[in-house]
């Protein structure tokens, strides 16, 4: 098979598109023929070595954790799927080496769910990691129907999912974004506010009584602002601020979850969630996808497409 490979930590230019052995398929795994793979900021962070203190990374490394594709073979005890099934997955394993930026990936069944019929391959590939991150963050703060949630970086890959999931739960959503993304947020059902200095005052203009919960997908000190606005300062979760637990909130590191992926797929098929794809590139151009992700200016997802 062809795959995106790195032989050491480095920048996107260290990636090459080359031949690799086909993956071995364990008893509780299936072999997936990749149709598309989503790109997330964590992918280039793994490549840069930022996760080395917490994860075992082995080389040669095939990056990538998001996938959408077709089951090509099943392991001896993988009864959940059959050959020909269309699946999506957040294929994060205990050790990092055999990722999804390849023509084939061996995926444990616990990391997969059936592909939502309402999404095309590109959209489906952009769903798993970011969608689960949003879902698990909202669950962590206990968001319920009728409550108001503040979503930081609401127009990004994770934030746009959080907005849609919260709206589907019957919550009021206030989302921070640059002014160029305000109409986009309104289309998702959120009330946009501009981020930056004075954010707390701008939120109070639309929510004088404060908010019930907040989720942070950007960092940059927004936990303090969130807690100024929260009625219960513990109801804040972050994926980007390592000090959130010290401040009484919740740190979220997304976990593979078949049930969560299935729930996201159900929302998509019910017309309550869609995936906004910003850029599509061939798998062989993963380096360019990483560079665009590093810029942090995409609206929605960057996706790599298999030929």
From TrEMBL:
Ranges in coiled-coil conformation: none
MF term (GO), any: oxidoreductase activity
Top-rank taxon: Bacteria
Domain Enoyl reductase (ER), first and last residues per copy: 10-304
Pfam families: ADH_N (PF08240), ADH_zinc_N_2 (PF13602)
Protein name (database record): NADP-dependent oxidoreductase
Natural source organism: Streptomyces rimosus subsp. rimosus (strain ATCC 10970 / DSM 40260 / JCM 4667 / NRRL 2234)
């Amino acid at each position: 098979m062809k795959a995106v490979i790195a032989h050491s930590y480095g920048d996107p230019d260290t990636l090459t598109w080359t031949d690799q052995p086909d993956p071995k398929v364990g008893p509780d795994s299936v072999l997936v023929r990749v149709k598309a793979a989503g790109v997330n900021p964590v992918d280039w962070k793994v490549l840069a070595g930022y996760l080395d203190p917490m994860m075992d990374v082995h080389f040669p490394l095939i990056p990538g954790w998001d996938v959408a594709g077709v089951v090509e073979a099943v392991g001896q005890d993988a009864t959940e799927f059959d050959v020909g099934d269309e699946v999506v997955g957040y294929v994060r394993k205990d050790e990092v080496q055999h990722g999804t930026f390849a023509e084939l990936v061996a995926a444990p069944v616990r990391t997969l769910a059936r592909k939502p019929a309402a999404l095309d391959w590109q959209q489906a590939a952009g769903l798993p990691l970011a969608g689960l991150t949003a879902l698990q963050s909202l669950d962590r703060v206990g968001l319920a129907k009728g409550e108001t949630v503040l979503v930081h970086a609401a127009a990004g890959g994770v934030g746009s999912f959080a907005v849609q999931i919260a709206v589907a739960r019957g919550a009021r959503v206030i989302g921070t974004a640059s002014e160029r993304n305000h109409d986009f947020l309104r289309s998702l059902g959120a009330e946009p506010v501009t981020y930056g200095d004075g954010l707390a005052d701008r939120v109070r203009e639309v929510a004088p009584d404060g908010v019930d919960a907040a989720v942070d997908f950007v960092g940059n000190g927004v936990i303090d602002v969130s807690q100024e606005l929260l009625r219960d300062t513990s109801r804040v979760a972050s994926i980007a601020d390592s000090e959130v637990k010290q401040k009484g909130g919740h740190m979220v590191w997304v976990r593979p979850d078949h049930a969560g992926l299935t729930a996201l797929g159900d929302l998509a098929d019910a017309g309550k969630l869609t995936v906004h794809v910003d850029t599509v590139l061939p798998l062989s151009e993963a380096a360019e996808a990483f560079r665009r992700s590093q810029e942090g200016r995409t609206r929605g997802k960057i996706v790599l497409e298999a030929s």
